[in-house]
Amino acid sequence: MGIPADVTLNTGATMPVLGFGTWQLRGDECRRAVAAALEAGYRMLDTAAIYGNEEQVGLGMRDAGLEREDVFVCTKLAGRDHGRTSDAARESMERLGVEYLDCYLIHWPAGQTADFEVWAEMERLHADGALRSIGVSNYSVALIEQLLDRGDVPPAVNQVEMNPFTHPRDIVKLCRDQAIAVQAYSPLGQASRLDDSRVARVADRVGRTPAQVMLRWGIQHGAVVIPKSANRERITANAQVFDFELAEADMAALDELG
Ligand SMILES: NC(=O)c1ccc[n+]([C@@H]2O[C@H](COP(=O)([O-])OP(=O)(O)OC[C@H]3O[C@@H](n4cnc5c(N)ncnc54)[C@H](OP(=O)(O)O)[C@@H]3O)[C@@H](O)[C@H]2O)c1
Predict the structure, then answer these.
(1) Which residue's alpha carbon is nearest to atom 48 within ligand 1?
(2) Which side of the chain, N or C, has fewer Cβ within a 10 Å radius?
(3) Is 75 touching ligand 1 by the criterion CB < 6 Å?
């Protein structure tokens, strides 16, 4: 099953199916890891204002020497900034050293209702062209439905935790039905279950690592995966997920885990 390297968002923009996560990467380690990821072929970077590393992500991007339009840059609005969305987005762009963001997400919902005022401000920045695509993160089915009902622009992305052990089927289904791309965060389960014997069985069968199997599982479910690693070898290995396929039986075995 060939899987294209990009998905087309409901804004018409294309987003790579494989991105590089940067949570917990700081300082020079972050800068080096981002450059290594771009050298290994990743073309999407995921960061957030609260990660405190946007500047290093930007430096790593420049170290890799790619054209701006060849890297899909995604960052997120912090909860503390919900009352100052425009300023916060501009500050993120300044720290990253970019003139526009490919994707800007509301990092967490503030409560039980969708963040309508924040969303309206993001819609304005999207119309201006500063935010090419806008989306949400950690949004439940109910919150997405509220936003679809009341917003003018539908979210292009919902970034949620997704791996074989945490599989938010209801959210994935709604997003598929509404043409909202799912970005799977913690796609390796933060490495806590990589030694699970059932993942290992599938990995042995296909001759791949458990990490590659978990990432491929997410991709075959239609998600965009954004693994993080500080280690060059693991960064490179995690990108080798387009040259093998999980059979239906392997997908079913992994589906039983979560
Ligand atoms: N929207 C949100 O609320 C939210 C929440 C969490 C995460 N995220 C995003 O999603 C990204 C990924 O999630 P995550 O960082 O939580 O976890 P993850 O990518 O599932 O796992 C990262 C952990 O796995 C280890 N690792 C990576 N590749 C490995 C391999 N091949 N073999 C063994 N261990 C490996 C890493 O250690 P080393 O670094 O030592 O390799 C690190 O400890 C984040 O970086 C962030 O960008 C978003």
Answers:
(1) 185
(2) N
(3) no
pLDDT in tens, 69-96: 999 999 999 999 999 999 999 999 999 9
Each residue of 224-241: pLDDT tens digit? 999 999 999 999 999 999
Cβ(16)–Cβ(37) under 8 Å? no
Structural element, H or E, at residue 15: strand 14-16
Q: Is 100 a catalytic residue?
A: no
Rounded Cα–Cα distance for residues 120 and 123 (Å): 5
**Does the beta carbon of 50 sit less than 6 angstroms from any atom of ligand 1?**
no
Count Cβ atoms below 10 Å from residue 233 Cβ, excluding itself: 10
Q: Dihedral (C-alpha) 172, 73, 104, 13: value to the nearest 10 degrees? A: -70
Task: Decide whether any atom of ligand 1 lies within 6 Å of the 32 Cβ.
Answer: no
Quote the CATH superfamily of domain 6-255: NADP-dependent oxidoreductase domain (3.20.20.100)
User: Structural domain boundaries of the chain?
Assistant: 6-255
Is 231 within 8 Å of 245 (Cβ atoms)?
A: no
